[in-house]
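Record type: monomer structure entry
Structure origin: computed from sequence
Chain ID: A
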Amino acid sequence: MDPLARPLDDVWFTRDLPVLRAIARLVDAPQHGGAPYLGQVVPASGLPKPDVTAAARALVDSGYVEALTNYAGEIVRFTGISAEARRLAGLWPTPQGEWARLVEQLAVRAANAPTDVERQRWRAMAEAADALGEDDGALLMAALIGGYVPRRR
């Protein structure tokens, strides 16, 4: 196969997401004043500086992070992150993640209920959640997280 025709290697999980998580942790931490330097992100990400720099450019270009640059256009400091970046980094909940937590909690409650009556109730609720499914469950969680009820089409 022609090397130029081959798709590029994925960098989201190996480079960009770890850097986004490092930036999010540092932006969210009060000790850095919410605006960490690139030099602080490098050790926080665990990646080499060239990878962090490439990831940072990609994250800025995609609107996930905001950054200050020097006169040469190099990223110096991060000044903010988007709401979507907060969700991707795990700082804010996602509907899918909250649904999974609810389903897990129902199973734990059913297993640890002190009486048969309570155990049956928790199992019934867990079975109802299972019957509802992930998609509708995520819609429900979106309503709870966001404070609105989305319409199903």
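Annotation 1: Strands lie at 65-69, 75-81.
Annotation 2: Residues 125 and 131 are 10 Å apart (CA to CA).
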